[in-house]
């Protein structure tokens, strides 16, 4: 496993990180989830990601229980705040009240004294950015959070937060968690240039385009049983990737992977990691075999010819 620095910080994270969205605490049995997390750790993955909203706190409980087996200093743990955790008017967003209450609730569920990274899970237009940053800053000063991040914020929103932090001497954002894969590349235009200038890193989610880039979904064939697309609750999130042109592109990408003697998943992850501003590619795994395959993509370097070939395949193929 290779490691990269998180932006300009001194924190080093594994190129492949393991997340818990749509899996742990929900569709994956607890025993399997713990085995998968343990195997990831054995493979050198030191970066584990969750959120309070994943299965309404259940994902945090599973992740926390699994990581209890390891020394706290040996792994990097991230969680998030923003989405509704109740029906009350203050049970959502990035107000000081919600941030503080959810930070303490997350620490309790995870069974730890601090999290390494605490993300604003989305931008909250109803709360002043300064209020949120002051709450985060207090958590950092209290030692309950080590680094602050955001997820799916625009370049303008990130720029605003950095300016306020600098002006008010508050703890700065050091990481952004956006969607990024071969079919969704919006961060290349503004987010990455800004982040490189300001010292932020990207920890990208959905690098396999909800599993479509693994090659498991094929044109003209039924959706395989047991896959995310077969789950009616999850299917709407994958639907936009099930386009005919995208699936045709996947067929060509599978051929590229075959020629390189790697799997389509490893090709997709290596392509994401070609970006120096990407510190880690965040994957989900419902089976031990999946995390073993994905972890093996760390260290794979695609040469210029391969990258050009991939670009030609992706020409005009995008969900943006």
UniProtKB/TrEMBL annotation:
<dbReference type="GO" id="GO:0005829">
    <property type="term" value="C:cytosol"/>
</dbReference>
<dbReference type="InterPro" id="IPR005399">
    <property type="entry name" value="K_chnl_volt-dep_bsu_KCNAB-rel"/>
</dbReference>
<dbReference type="Pfam" id="PF00248">
    <property type="entry name" value="Aldo_ket_red"/>
</dbReference>
<dbReference type="InterPro" id="IPR023210">
    <property type="entry name" value="NADP_OxRdtase_dom"/>
</dbReference>
<dbReference type="InterPro" id="IPR036812">
    <property type="entry name" value="NAD(P)_OxRdtase_dom_sf"/>
</dbReference>
<keyword id="KW-0813">Transport</keyword>
<dbReference type="InterPro" id="IPR020471">
    <property type="entry name" value="AKR"/>
</dbReference>
<keyword id="KW-0560">Oxidoreductase</keyword>
<protein>
    <submittedName>
        <fullName>Voltage-gated potassium channel beta subunit</fullName>
    </submittedName>
</protein>
<keyword id="KW-0406">Ion transport</keyword>
<dbReference type="GO" id="GO:0034220">
    <property type="term" value="P:monoatomic ion transmembrane transport"/>
</dbReference>
<dbReference type="GO" id="GO:0016491">
    <property type="term" value="F:oxidoreductase activity"/>
</dbReference>
<keyword id="KW-0407">Ion channel</keyword>
<keyword id="KW-0521">NADP</keyword>
<comment type="similarity">
    <text>Belongs to the shaker potassium channel beta subunit family.</text>
</comment>
<feature type="domain" description="NADP-dependent oxidoreductase">
    <location>
        <begin position="15"/>
        <end position="314"/>
    </location>
</feature>
């Amino acid at each position: 496993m290779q490691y990269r620095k998180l932006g300009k910080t001194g924190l080093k994270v594994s190129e492949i990180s393991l997340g818990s969205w749509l899996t742990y605490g929900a569709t994956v049995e607890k025993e399997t989830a713990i085995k998968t997390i343990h195997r990831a750790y054995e493979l050198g993955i030191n970066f584990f990601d969750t959120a309070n909203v994943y299965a309404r706190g259940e994902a945090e409980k599973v992740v926390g229980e699994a990581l209890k087996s390891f020394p706290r200093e040996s792994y990097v743990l991230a969680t998030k705040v923003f989405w509704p955790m109740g029906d009350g008017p203050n049970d959502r967003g990035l107000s000081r009240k919600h941030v503080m209450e959810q930070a303490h609730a997350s620490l309790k569920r995870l069974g730890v004294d601090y999290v390494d990274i605490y993300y604003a899970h989305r931008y909250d237009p109803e709360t002043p950015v300064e209020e949120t940053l002051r709450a985060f800053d207090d958590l950092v000063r209290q030692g309950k959070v080590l680094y602050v991040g955001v997820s799916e914020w625009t370049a303008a929103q990130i720029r605003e937060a950095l300016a306020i932090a600098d002006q008010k001497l508050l703890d700065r954002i050091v990481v952004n968690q956006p969607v990024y894969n071969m079919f969704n590349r919006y961060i290349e235009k503004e987010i990455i240039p800004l982040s490189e200038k300001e010292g932020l890193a990207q920890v990208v989610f959905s690098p396999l385009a909800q599993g479509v880039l693994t090659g498991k979904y094929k044109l003209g064939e039924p959706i395989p049983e047991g896959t995310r697309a077969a789950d009616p609750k999850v299917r709407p999130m994958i639907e936009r990737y099930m386009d005919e042109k995208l699936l045709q592109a996947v067929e060509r990408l599978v051929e590229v992977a075959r020629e390189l003697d790697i799997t389509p998943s490893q090709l997709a992850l290596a392509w994401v990691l070609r970006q120096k501003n990407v510190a880690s590619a965040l994957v989900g795994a419902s089976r031990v075999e999946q995390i073993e395959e994905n972890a093996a993509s760390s260290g794979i370097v695609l040469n210029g010819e391969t990258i050009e070939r991939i670009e030609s395949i992706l020409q005009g193929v995008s969900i943006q």
